[in-house]
Design a protein that fits this description.
The structure is a homodimer of 340-residue chains. Chain A folds into 3 domains: 48 residues, 434 Repressor (Amino-terminal Domain), CATH 1.10.260; 126 residues, 3-Layer(aba) Sandwich (Rossmann fold); 132 residues, Rossmann fold (3-Layer(aba) Sandwich). The first copy, chain A, is an alpha/beta fold. Chain A contains 12 helices and 12 strands. Chains A, B: InterPro entries: Cro/C1-type_HTH, HTH_LacI, LacI/GalR-like_sensor, Lambda_DNA-bd_dom_sf, Peripla_BP_I.
Chain lengths: 340, 340
């Protein structure tokens, strides 16, 4: 049987014949499309390797998925990275990591590099993208999805988030049920929507229990331990200090616990503390942290699947917004308020 | 002046003329070589962009540096990633992240993908590479360096590590100077050289103080909090329990602190704890953790620079082994032994 091109190399048709599938399916595998079964993909990949098939197109050659962080410095980011990596791995793609540093959006060099790398898609952990960058990615048919637990949603960009309002509500209700009436909050940064959603959940829980929200007990943080420490010190220095503090992230909760220690307060006897995120370390604080579990890894997995679906030509059911649920995890940092 | 090739595109010679440098220097920039000043590189990159220069070779097109982790699940890994990213960024390269999961070496699919991606180089956070993988990387002139704080050194592969023995010595001396005589150790996993180096430093510190090492007080851990908890529970249940424990990692130290709490022991009044690594969280434990600082980010930076130097054709001064120093950081988890 005659095979190969004029140089004796296998053609797409040869590969398709050997795999007993259509040329278009081989092409789908080469282009990293998701609408091919894993078994077929494996078979095609094996045959491609056996023929040492040289892929022409850059994208199909060594498929990449990009994840762009605003900050790359916490377990929070690591959880997201692992989620992206899991799904990329299922699709034979490698993960490129970039971060924008002090900027809330990627710098000017970033888009040039992405357009040259031609990834299957981009997962952004940022507030949003400047219109010019969106235009350039769209012009090259590079799909992108935003994971926005820390950011404001961009109405024309598909996004994956979690139920921040419900999380704030659950954390505050838990403290109310324990008997707390003076409940402080150190929510996230004031310029992020998720911080407002968690704060609104807190307010609603108080209102539904017939309690008013005392503005003195409300603070905005920075999602880091340092911010939690500084804000909690202020709350704990109030004449009528709170008996419980809901921190807008586990890292902020670490700072709140340190503030308690500096004020000579025991957790949970003198001060109850609730975190947000449920990072691995939440079970290793002393005492172990009661927190709102945000399914970070699953969020990143969903975002990556969404990028690949868009890449595969699935119609964008605009505006796409996936919201995963949050759950309260009760450990040892919360208790009924002590008698003082 | 006549310029460009037959299609009117800028050639290397055009770029070199405009930048007022030699063609070989332009070529060095395109190939991600490190022996070009940052100023020259910036100028060349700017001119290349202005001409929308299409790089022919895949490697120069969108340069990648790969980092391969054994485990991708801790702040420890995040620190290394940030170090690689810093240096890659300086060289206009993107970082590809992979991890080998349960395996101590990358899986069979990994090498195929790397050979297709043709990165500038590979930074491995693994015990080593099977000979076949080393052969394949060398055949394609893809340099690789091992960061081996957790691994056994591979004599024919350049590596970057830190002074584990000196770290173990410093931690133990600190406890002896505070007056401790019953000092336990939960070092790293038994199959890693660094765990043995830290244990030997511990033994030497004891011997130099005229103290014997009690085999009952020596345990091997798993570098995770779970392992620290399990081993410390055993040490603290001994009839003549230690008054101090040196944990082979900060995560293990979290487990040791939890074990102390479960035994009703206060840190540092009843039990002193020393960690290893100095992750960000070490300053946020209650009390803040005394630990041996391992310069993880710098280690990753050095490893990446070494990869790029090898790529740039610098002679490998075999066997290359860079060892960065460790330093004791004294915080609040250590004190003189209490009166019992």
């Amino acid at each position: 049987m005659e095979k190969g091109d004029e140089l004796g190399r296998a053609t797409l048709a040869d590969i398709a014949r050997e795999a007993e599938i259509s040329v278009s399916t081989v092409s789908k595998v080469l282009n990293g499309r998701t609408d091919v079964s894993a078994a077929t993909r494996d078979r095609v990949e094996r045959i491609l390797r056996a023929h040492d098939y040289q892929r022409g197109a850059r994208g199909g050659e060594a498929p990449l998925i990009e994840i762009v962080f605003h900050e790359l410095d916490s377990l929070w980011a690591m959880e997201l990275l692992r989620g992206v990596e899991t799904v990329a791995d299922e699709h034979g793609a490698a993960v490129v990591v970039a971060h924008s540093g002090s900027r809330r959006a990627p710098g000017p060099g970033w888009i040039d590099a992405v357009l040259r790398r031609r990834p299957l898609g981009v997962v952004l952990v940022l507030s949003g993208l400047p219109p010019e960058l969106k235009r350039q990615l769209r012009a090259r048919s590079i799909p992108f999805v935003i994971i926005d637990p820390a950011g404001n949603p961009d109405p024309d960009v598909p996004s994956v988030g979690s139920a921040n309002w419900a999380g704030g509500l659950a954390a505050t209700r838990h403290l109310i049920e324990l008997g707390h009436r003076r409940i402080g909050i150190v929510t996230g940064p004031e310029d992020t929507l998720c911080a407002h959603a968690r704060l609104d959940g807190y307010r609603s829980a108080l209102a539904m229990a017939g309690l008013g929200a005392d503005p003195d007990l409300i603070a905005y943080g920075d999602f880091h331990a340092e911010g939690g420490l500084a804000r909690a010190k202020r709350l704990l220095a109030l004449p009528d200090r709170p008996t419980a503090i809901f921190a807008g992230s586990d890292l902020q909760a670490l700072g709140v616990m340190e503030a308690a220690r500096l004020h000579g307060l025991r957790v949970p006897e003198d001060l109850s503390v609730v975190g947000y995120d449920d990072l691995d370390l939440a079970q290793w604080t002393s005492p172990a942290l009661t927190t709102v579990r945000q399914p970070l890894r699953e969020m990143a997995e969903q975002a990556t699947r969404l990028v690949l679906a868009l890449r595969g030509g699935e119609p964008p059911t605009a505006p796409t917004r996936l919201e995963l649920s949050t759950t309260l995890v009760v450990r040892s940092s919360t208790a009924a308020p002590g008698r003082r």
